[in-house]
């Protein structure tokens, strides 16, 4: 029987490709923007693109934020993607500072503007956003990233896979109990991304 | 470590791939969905669809192509061509595009870039810049490049590097830089302007125009030559001259970091 997944629609970007990828790996997907529906979900995927701002503030302070916290506290499998992962943490520096859901310890920071591609001070400045395919450790698999902000956590035991961009090593995936998150876009990461989603769907783990 | 990207580009006219794509296993060489799927399977890091239709009906057809292609691939999809206003961007993103490229409309109204970036996020706004080298005046050593619009038919008087810097500061997420001098020549990218823009702007640059060999891709991505973050090409892949996988192998063998080609393993449960 297909696993039923609630895909949270919170006005943080297009959900079609995430839905499409979940269906490909065997999920039965229900897209919902209704906090009551989300609160009763047995499995939740919470994607997001873009930035912390008025939309995330309304989410965090509102009924959807409460519903997401409820699912997480109850122990049902939860996956946050990109901004959806960042929102699990306490706070972001973005736009002068916005609160997250405060489920996990850490804050969201911007990549420093002056990172260089090598040790040489004349080496090219690294581009921001970090956009494209990077490998994660320890698996060595490649995933597609598109972000200017990353999670800096005070609890390294949360981090499953790391990614490095310039001088910054940041969590590519995090997990604690039933809660998972990925900074990359699994729906855009071809086979490695689909495998990642499939692990979550089949095992409630990543 | 961030890898350099290889991006095949399909020109679409009235819903069909212009010139067709010649792979042994394609039934319909002009079908954008089949071509896109083939590139995805070959390991393209991203796919680009450019609408070269001029008519309104053609535009609607293009949105439908975007929708059908987006439903078939699991890599990022950049689309462009004829994007004039915010509503065009919204329509293309809603159809499943991950990034939308704006060109002439951004030149006419640079603040459109900021408006789009604020609304949809910088990561989905690409500014496409077509450039042409100006004939050097007597005594000039460094060539100057001008921005051209409407498919290279109209000059703007804008300096290419300054315009790219302005686009970046207005919130563009990437620059798609095409040399109109090189486009279609198969002589290789214009490395001088690609390198200059890549070094000056803080956002990723996609090199475009002129690729005729795998060595040209390498040149575009080499930090000492084109220094681009991604290499876009059309005809060398379309005509089956090289596969994306061959391009990846060539680049890796020549010291350019790329995502290794991975054959599909049993991931798809349905479909």
TrEMBL record, chain A:
GO terms for molecular function: glutaminase activity; imidazoleglycerol-phosphate synthase activity; lyase activity. Keywords: Amino-acid biosynthesis, Cytoplasm, Glutamine amidotransferase, Histidine biosynthesis, Hydrolase, Lyase. The keyword GTP-binding does not apply. Residues 7-190 form the Glutamine amidotransferase domain. Pathway: Amino-acid biosynthesis; L-histidine biosynthesis; L-histidine from 5-phospho-alpha-D-ribose 1-diphosphate: step 5/9. The active site is at 82 (nucleophile), 185, 187. It comes from the Bacteria. Its main location: cytoplasm. Its EC number is 4.3.2.10, 3.5.1.2. Signal peptide: none annotated. The keyword Lyase applies. One of its GO terms (biological process) is L-histidine biosynthetic process. Pfam families: GATase. It catalyses: 5-[(5-phospho-1-deoxy-D-ribulos-1-ylimino)methylamino]-1-(5-phospho-beta-D-ribosyl)imidazole-4-carboxamide + L-glutamine = D-erythro-1-(imidazol-4-yl)glycerol 3-phosphate + 5-amino-1-(5-phospho-beta-D-ribosyl)imidazole-4-carboxamide + L-glutamate + H(+); L-glutamine + H2O = L-glutamate + NH4(+). GO terms for cellular component: cytoplasm. It is found in: Cytoplasm. InterPro entries: Class_I_gatase-like, GATASE, Imidazole-glycPsynth_HisH. PROSITE patterns: GATASE_TYPE_1 (PS51273). NCBIfam families: IMP_synth_hisH. IGPS catalyzes the conversion of PRFAR and glutamine to IGP, AICAR and glutamate. The HisH subunit catalyzes the hydrolysis of glutamine to glutamate and ammonia as part of the synthesis of IGP and AICAR. The resulting ammonia molecule is channeled to the active site of HisF. Heterodimer of HisH and HisF. This is Imidazole glycerol phosphate synthase subunit HisH. The lineage of its organism: Bacteria, Pseudomonadati, Myxococcota, Polyangia, Nannocystales.
Automatic annotation (TrEMBL), chain B:
GO terms for cellular component: cytoplasm. It catalyses: 5-[(5-phospho-1-deoxy-D-ribulos-1-ylimino)methylamino]-1-(5-phospho-beta-D-ribosyl)imidazole-4-carboxamide + L-glutamine = D-erythro-1-(imidazol-4-yl)glycerol 3-phosphate + 5-amino-1-(5-phospho-beta-D-ribosyl)imidazole-4-carboxamide + L-glutamate + H(+). GO terms for biological process: L-histidine biosynthetic process. Its main location: cytoplasm. InterPro entries: Aldolase_TIM (IPR013785), His_biosynth (IPR006062), HisF (IPR004651), IGPS_HisA/HisF (IPR050064), RibuloseP-bd_barrel (IPR011060). CDD domains: HisF. Pathway: Amino-acid biosynthesis; L-histidine biosynthesis; L-histidine from 5-phospho-alpha-D-ribose 1-diphosphate: step 5/9. GO terms for molecular function: imidazoleglycerol-phosphate synthase activity; lyase activity. Its EC number is 4.3.2.10. Heterodimer of HisH and HisF. Belongs to the HisA/HisF family. IGPS catalyzes the conversion of PRFAR and glutamine to IGP, AICAR and glutamate. The HisF subunit catalyzes the cyclization activity that produces IGP and AICAR from PRFAR using the ammonia provided by the HisH subunit. NCBIfam families: hisF. This is Imidazole glycerol phosphate synthase subunit HisF.
């Amino acid at each position: 029987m297909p696993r039923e997944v609630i895909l949270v629609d919170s006005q943080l970007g297009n959900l079609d490709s995430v839905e499409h990828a979940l269906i490909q790996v065997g999920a039965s997907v229900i897209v919902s923007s209704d906090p009551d529906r989300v609160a009763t979900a047995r499995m939740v995927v919470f994607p997001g693109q873009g930035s912390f701002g008025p939309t995330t503030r309304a989410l965090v302070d509102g009924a959807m934020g409460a519903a997401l916290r409820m699912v997480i506290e109850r122990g049902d499998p939860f996956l946050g993607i990109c901004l959806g992962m960042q929102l699990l943490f306490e706070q972001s520096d973005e736009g002068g500072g916005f609160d997250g859901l405060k489920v996990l310890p850490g804050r969201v920071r911007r990549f420093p503007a002056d990172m260089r591609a090598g040790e040489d001070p004349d080496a090219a400045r690294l581009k921001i956003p970090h956009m494209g395919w990077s490998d994660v450790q320890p698996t060595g698999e490649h995933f597609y990233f598109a972000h200017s902000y990353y999670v800096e956590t005070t609890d390294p035991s949360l981090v499953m896979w790391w990614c490095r961009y310039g001088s910054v090593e940041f969590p590519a995936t995090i997990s604690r109990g039933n809660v998972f998150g990925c900074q990359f876009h699994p729906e855009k990461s071809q086979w490695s991304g689909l495998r990642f989603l499939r692990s979550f769907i089949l095992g409630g783990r990543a | 470590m961030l890898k350099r990207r290889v991006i095949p580009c399909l020109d679409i006219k009235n819903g069909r791939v212009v010139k067709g794509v010649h792979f042994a296993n394609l039934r319909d060489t002009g079908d954008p969905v089949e071509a896109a799927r083939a590139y995805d399977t070959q390991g393209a890091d991203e796919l680009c669809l450019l609408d070269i239709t001029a008519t309104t009906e053609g535009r609607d057809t293009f949105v439908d192509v975007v929708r059908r292609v987006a439903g078939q691939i699991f890599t990022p999809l950049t689309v462009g061509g004829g994007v004039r206003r915010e509503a065009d961007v919204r329509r293309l993103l809603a159809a499943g595009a991950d990034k939308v490229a704006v060109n002439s409309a951004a030149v006419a109204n640079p603040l459109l870039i900021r408006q789009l970036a604020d609304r949809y996020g910088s990561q989905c706004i690409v500014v496409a810049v077509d450039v042409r080298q100006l004939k050097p005046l007597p005594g000039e050593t460094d060539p100057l490049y001008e921005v051209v619009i409407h498919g290279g038919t109209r000059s703007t008087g804008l300096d290419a590097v300054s315009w790219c810097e302005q686009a970046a500061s207005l919130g563009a997420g990437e620059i798609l830089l095409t040399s109109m001098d090189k486009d279609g020549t198969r002589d290789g990218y214009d490395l001088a302007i690609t390198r200059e823009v890549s070094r000056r702007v803080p956002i990723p640059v996609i090199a475009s125009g002129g690729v005729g060999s795998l060595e040209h891709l390498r040149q575009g991505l080499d930090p000492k030559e084109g220094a681009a973050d991604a290499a876009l090409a059309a005809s060398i892949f379309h005509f089956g001259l090289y596969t994306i996988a061959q391009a990846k192998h060539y680049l890796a063998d020549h010291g350019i970091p790329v995502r290794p080609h991975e054959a599909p393993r049993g991931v798809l449960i349905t479909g």
